[in-house]
Structures are given as C-alpha cells and as structure tokens.
Amino acid sequence: MSQDIEGMSDGESRFTFLLQPSGKVDAWLRITRQTQNDYLLDVDKNYGELVIARLKRFLLRTDCRIEILNYFLYTEIGNSLNENDFVDCIAIPYSWFGFEFTDYIFKSDSFSESFTLVDDSVWTQMRIKVGIPEMGKEIDTSTIPASLGIVDFSVSFTKGCYTGQELVARMDSRKGGTPYRLVRISGISGITASQGVLLNSGEEIGTITSEIVIDNDFFALGFLKRGVESPTEAQVVDKDSKEKSVFVMPLEG
User: What does the pLDDT look like over 211-241, one tens digit per residue?
Assistant: First the structure.
C-alpha cells in the first residue's frame, strides 16, 4: 500500500492507495489499526473482493489471513455523537477540505437509537458537494493518484518501496501537474442532467463523472484539463442539448 502502516498506533486510521505496478489505482481505501496484528480495511461497496485478490498476491511465506467481514457503516456529517456509548463499534472521525465527518463501523447491523437512518442519496449529495471521489466514478484502473488531489493524506513519501511508487514519486516532482485534476462543479441555471463534458467557448476542457440535482441546483465532480485554471466559469450541455453555465472550483476552494 502507498501509506505507512508500520507507523500507525492502535485505533488510528489512514487513507491509502492500492496501486498497480504501473502506478495506476486498483483501489483507494482506508486502513484502521485495531491491534498490532489486526487491521480493518474499508473500501467502497463492491470492491472488497478486488482488494482481497490484489493483497493475496503478496502472501508469500506470510502468516496472514485476509477475509471479508459483514460490517455496517453509518456516516455522521460532523462529529457530535459520543462513540463511547456504542458497543462493538469503531468510530473514525476525519476532515475533508474543511468539512467534518465521523464514520461509525458496527460489527453487526444493530446500532444505537441515536442514529437517524436516511436514504443513501443524502450521502451521494454530500460527497459530491465536498469532493470525495468514489470507486467506479472518479476512480478506476486508469486513474493517476495525483489527479485526485488526495495524495498528501493517502501516500507516505518516507515509508520505503511499494508497488506503483515510481509514478507517484515522478508526478510529485513535476511542476506541470497531471493531464487532468479532480474539481467540484456547481450551477443554478436549471440544469437537469449533463452530457458528461465541460466546455469553455465550445472547447472541451474536462469531463463530469458524478452529478446530482437538488431542487434547482446542480452539483458535480469531474476532471479539468491541465492548463485551465480554477476557479473558473464553464458550460455543460444539458440533456436538451442547450449549454448551461457552471462554476468550477478546486477541491480545497
């Protein structure tokens, strides 16, 4: 993995990439150290088998067991709840470019009445608004880690060798950046759905990977071409083939 695992303490969590030899992303996930010999990995839904298959390729003369656990995850926007009140629960608070979250991972599907369950679309809205990439949307096997803007807290540059390290190090040393970078997009011009591209004066300057409409507001994530500064105004083509104005912002903006 791209993250320093040996330097973790009990209860600590870190984001990490699991990379191909070419440096492209196989998975972006989180690892939590429970004890010295017990680590919990959590990854986007439907990607657990991929992570296990990748890791098992390295189990050579290694006393290690990797298995899928049927746990339940609840995300709180903010961190107002007291995790000490919950039994068989791992609480993981984290910040995302100024936004606060706490993930509660329960070892069963029974959880406290303190939680109010809502539709998964609420999380979709939030992750798009704040710029959290998702496997299968913003991340696939062609993705360069540096294009996601999250290398600073997903990669250790001091841990030593790991699969895919060369590309990560090379892109970090380049001043020109990646061909595309992840950005947040918003608009209020009655957009109902885009056709997946970002335009500037008719020229394609990027792509849209996730989008959602809330009332009359349009929110999206996408990739902006190198050389195009942000924040900036751009256009999307609506499903009715009309151009609509949007605002493109960096993740940290």
Answer: 999 888 999 999 999 999 999 999 999 888 8
Neighbouring C-beta atoms of residue 202, cutoff 10 Å: 7
Residues 102 and 226 in one domain: no
Instruction: Give the span between the Cα atoms of 167 and 145, in whole angstroms.
Output: 9
Place of tokens 């151009």: 243
Whole-Å CA distances, 185 to 19, 127, 198, 235: 28, 12, 10, 10
Token representation of residue 244: 């609509």
Q: Are residues 75 and 30 in the same domain?
A: yes
Q: Is residue 94 part of a domain?
A: yes
pTM of structure: 0.91
Q: What is the pLDDT of residues 47-88, one digit of tens each?
A: 999 999 999 998 888 889 999 998 888 898 887 766 556 778
Range of the domain at 107: 13-170
Residues in the chain: 253
